[in-house]
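=== RUN LOG ===
request id: a7f3
mode: sequence -> structure
chains: 1
length: 197
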Amino acid sequence: MKIGAKLVKELRDRTGAGMMDCKRALEETGADIEAAIDLLRSKGEAKAAKRAARAANEGTVASYIHHGGRIGVLLELNCETDFVANTDDFRTLARDLAMHVAAADPIAVAVADVDARVVARERKIFLEQVAREGKPEHIRDRIVEGKLGKFFKERVLLEQGYVRDPDRTVGDLITEVSARTGEKIRVARFSRFQVGG
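=== RESULT ===
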């Protein structure tokens, strides 16, 4: 099957992938653009997983001021090279993540970063809730783990639904940009300030 340049260009515009990668994906999927997008995303995510062990010592600090100057965020986003750190894709991601932090108020970057005392306190509250609800003893731990998982999705940056597209997590958004840039990208830290808070 001959794949036209117009279709390759459309796929490239939608994914940011290389021309040859787009052409191969369209050939593999019989020119089905949606299937080609899925194929490129899955390959990009696999590459991003391989990059996870690499050092990410370059990057930027993004700031965002919201709500008439009442909420402010500083966020450090890292990548592997200063070349990627200076791309529009990377800088836009950093700004979008800072805006997300202002709106969603996460307590940590990743689940592993959540203070153990916070996890213990939430677990205790959830155990008391399921006991009061009269749930059977043998399923209480599973219910509590489910509630903790929901807590992490609401309060941990990488697990949260992205405010501009709640069907994707912040972690998914970072993985997509990482796949496009070909480098490991990670949020190193953030600080959120609120007047009177």
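=== NOTES ===
The CA atoms of residues 123 and 148 lie 7 Å apart.
The beta strands are 58-66, 71-79, 161-162, 165-169, 186-194.
=== END ===
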